[in-house]
Amino acid sequence: MTPAQRDISRKLRIFNYAKQIGNVSAACRHFGISREIYYQWKRAYEKDGEQALVNSKPCPENPKLRTKPEVEEKILHLRRTYHFGQQRIAWYLERYHGITISAGGVRCVLVRHGLNRLPRNERKRSPVYQRYEKQVPGHHVQIDVKFLDFQQPDGQKARRFQYTAIDDATRIRALKIYEKHTQENAISFVDYVVGKFPFRIQTIRTDNGHEFQVKFHWHVLDLGMDHVYIKPRTPRLNGKVERSHSTDQQEFYQLLSYNCRFPEMKPGLSEIIRVSLGTWMRHCNLPTQE
User: Fold this and answer.
1) Contact yes or no for 166/239 (Cβ under 8 A)
2) How does pLDDT run across 114-151, given as a tens digit for each residue?
3) Contact of 141 with 168, CB cutoff 8 Å
4) Considering the domain 141-283, what is its CATH architecture?
C-alpha cells in the first residue's frame, strides 16, 4: 500500500466510524484529531473525492536537491540485488564509484521507491556482543568451514566445503573449496594460508569441529604457530570468519547460477564456480584463489 493509499484509507475509516456511532466528537477523540480537522477533511472529500484526502507536502520539492537519476538507479540496483542497508550503499558508492551521498540521502531514495523495508526472509539482527580486535597482522587468524550444497543435473545434491581463513587485524582472507570435510584437507588448507598471507601467523583460532582435532592441532604447532579452540557453542568468538561466510552467502552464492555438470568438474571445484569465485574475491579486494 502506497503512502497516498494509506492516507485515503485512514480518513475514510474515520468517516465511517463517525457515521457508525453517530457522534463526531467521540470519533475525533478515538482517532486523536480535532473536530476542525475532521470537518476540513470531510468538506474536501465531498468537493473533490478521495484524491483530496491525500496528505500534501508541507513545502514544494526542490528539484535541485533531488538525487540524480543515475545515482538513484545505482542505489536501487544495490538494494534489489544485494539487499544492502542505507549506510552500506553509501560506503559502496563512495568506494567503487566515487559518489558521495549520505545514508540519509540513500534512505530518501529508498522511501520514495517503496524499498525502505527489506524482504521478510532477510535475517534479523543478532544480539550485540562486545567486539575484540587485534592490532597486529597475524596475531590471530580465524579458520572455519562453510558447507555448500550444489544441485546436480539429475536433481541430487552434491556437498562441497569452503575452508576460510581471515586475519583478525587486516581482514585479509584466503579460501579454498574441497570435496571432503577432513583433517587432511584442513592441514592442506593451513599450508595454503601460510603461503598466501604476506605476514607471519602467530595463532590459529578454530571451533571444536572434528577437522581441527589432534592431527591438525599438532601440524599447526609443528609449523611454529599456536592453535587455540573457542569455547563450545560460542561462534561469536570466531565472529569475523562467521560474518564473512554470511556475506559470501548473501552476496555471492545466492546470486550464483548453479548450472554445473558435476561429472565434468575438476576435483573439488567446477569451472563456473572457480571463475565466479575468483571474480567475487577480486570484487572484495582480497587475495584470490589459485
Assistant:
1) no
2) 888 877 666 555 566 666 778 899 999 999 999 988 77
3) yes
4) 2-Layer Sandwich (3.30)
CA nearest 251: which of 271, 276, 269, 231?
276
Contact assessment for residue 146 and residue 162, using Cβ atoms and an 8 Å cutoff: yes
In this predicted structure, what is the pLDDT of residue 14? 93
Alpha-carbon gap, residue 198 to 142, rounded angstroms? 16
The model carries a pTM of: 0.59
List the domain boundaries for the chain. 3-53, 63-112, 141-283
168-191 CB burial, b ≥16 within 10 A, e <16? beeebbbbbbbeebebebbbebbe
How far does Cα 112 stand from its chain's mean position? 22
Q: State how far the Cα of 264 lies from the Cα of 271, in Å rounded to an integer.
A: 9
> What whole-number distance in Å separates Cα of residue 97 and Cα of residue 85?
17
Nearest Cα neighbor of 108 from 125, 90, 91, 92 is 90
- At 185 the three-state DSSP class reads helix
User: At CA 186, angle to CA 183 and CA 189, rounded to 5?
Assistant: 155
- Which residue in this structure is represented by grid cell 552464492? 253
122 vs 118: CA distance, rounded Å: 7
Give the DSSP letter of residue 129: -
